[in-house]
Write the structure tokens for this entry.
Amino acid sequence: ALVLCWLGDVLLLGRGRGTGLRLGLASFLLGHVAYAVAFTLRGLDPLACLAAAAGLLVPGFLVLRWLLPQAPSDWRIPVLAYAAVISVMAVSALGGISGPGGGVIALGALAFYASDLAVARERFVQSSFANKAWGLPLYYGAQLLLAGTATSV
């Protein structure tokens, strides 16, 4: 997951919404799948997963309601797919919160989830330094938290 996210970082170095962004999005999508698999292998509490899914439903809906009208039409399906996968990753992290390192993993996953809002805003809404100012610390903090729990995954 960390390697796929690193690759996504490299691919997102460019500007715009071209091939680099599509490949970066795909790399991060696969990174989220890898995280979700790792979190699932740790063991999940079905009730915690249900609560997490319910808790993420309204924020996820609000984000998509805000973002999709601003995304070009050819980006709507990729954005929906990415939102679904990162939500599954967050649910799987929260679903294992009672396990060893579960709180740190949940915090890292939620920080990662939130940091992607800065990327979405940067690419589809308004490019500004503010996106990087709050998005990058959340993202790198999330990666450090998740990497620090690798022995418990």
About this structure: Residues 29 and 82 are 6 Å apart (CA to CA). The chain is about 80% helix and 0% strand.
